[in-house]
Amino acid sequence: MIDKNKIFELYRNASFITRAYLRIKLRICPLIQLEAFFPREGTIVDLGCGNGLFPNILNLGSPERRVIGIDLDEKKIEVANQTKVPGSQITYQNGDVVDADYPLGDVITLVDVLYLIPYDKHELILQKCYQFLPSGGTLIIKEMDTAPRWKYAWNLFQETLAVKLIGFTLGERFYFRNQKEYLEILQRIGFSVKPVPMHSGYWYPHIVYICTKSPNLNS
Predict the structure, then answer these.
(1) Residues 126-162: tens digit of each pLDDT
(2) β-bridge mates for residue 143, sequence order
(3) Alpha helices, DSSP H only, in 35-171?
(4) Does residue 130 form part of some domain?
(5) Is residue 132 part of a domain?
(6) What is the reported pLDDT for 109?
(7) Domain that holds residue 152
(8) Contact criterion met (CB below 8 Å) for 155 and 205
(9) Integer Rg of the chain from CA
(10) 74, 106, 139, 195: which could join 42 in a potential S-S bond, CB 3.0 to 4.6 Å?
(11) What is the value of pTM for the model shown?
(12) Which helix (H) or strand (E) holds 183?
């Protein structure tokens, strides 16, 4: 298990707001548990990487991983670049995940990103993930489900505070989807999908989708 103190140490020179956000995020979100779904080596493309929290977790889990983070917020990319472990295989790019081409990788991940992007862009992003993955590659999505309903309602309240009042994340409204909708879109694109609920022990309806590009289809 990754030591949270090692993560906090990477952000020791970040602003108080950033450090407070990281502590809250790690307390309410199973990011450290999520790391176990990733291969120990290979190239991972983290779309919407923010201030580099998850790329740093991936690196602490296995320094053999090459991680490429992309985010729209230039200030967060600056913070991310300041937190890299010396010698780590992490690079960052400033870019819009809706418009930019993605680097080729063995795994692409979207961690709490799609809910801030309009519904009509979701399928475009997911199709691009499919396009830029090799045959047999994996897309890992971490999102919030709409069930259990009380956890969804609590999450909606918390996100309103974090996004609209405090300004932790870029965005004006929320675009949550239920599990059925995600399965329909991902399977239509061509992924085989395994949903993994991760809300046990949390007040939030965390869910992960492990999506595999069939090795029987052309890349």
Answers:
(1) 999 999 999 999 999 999 999 999 998 988 887 777 6
(2) 207
(3) 53-61, 74-82, 119-132, 149-159
(4) yes
(5) yes
(6) 98
(7) 4-213
(8) yes
(9) 16
(10) 106
(11) 0.92
(12) helix 179-189
Compute the distance between CA of residue 134 and CA of residue 148 in angstroms, rounded to an integer: 35
Whether the pLDDT of residue 171 is over 60: the answer is no
Query: How far, in Å, are 31, 61, 107, 193 from residue 2 at the CA level?
Result: 10, 6, 20, 27
Note the pLDDT tens digit of each residue in 40-55: 999 999 999 999 999 9
- ω into residue 148 within 30 of 0, thus cis? yes
What is the number of domains present in the chain?
A: 1
Which residue from 152, 137, 143, 146 is spatially nearest to 196, judged by alpha carbons? 143
Residue spans of beta strands (DSSP E) within the chain: 42-47, 65-71, 90-94, 107-111, 138-144, 191-197, 206-213
Q: What tokens were used for 122?
A: 């979701």
Residue 219 maps to a domain: no
Q: What is the pLDDT of residues 79-108, one digit of tens each?
A: 999 999 888 999 999 999 999 999 999 999
Q: What's the CA gap between 47 and 66, in Å, rounded?
A: 14
The pLDDT, as a whole number, for residue 41 is 96
Which CATH number characterizes residue 70's domain? 3.40.50.150
The upper half-sphere exposure of residue 29, i.e. CA atoms within 13 Å in the direction of its Cβ, equals: 21
Task: Say whether 38 sits in a helix, a strand or coil.
Answer: coil
Q: Establish if 142 belongs to a structural domain.
A: yes
CA distances from 162 to 70, 146, 147, 172, 174 (A): 21, 18, 21, 11, 12
Share of the chain above pLDDT 70, in %: 93
Two tokens at 66?
A: 């090459």
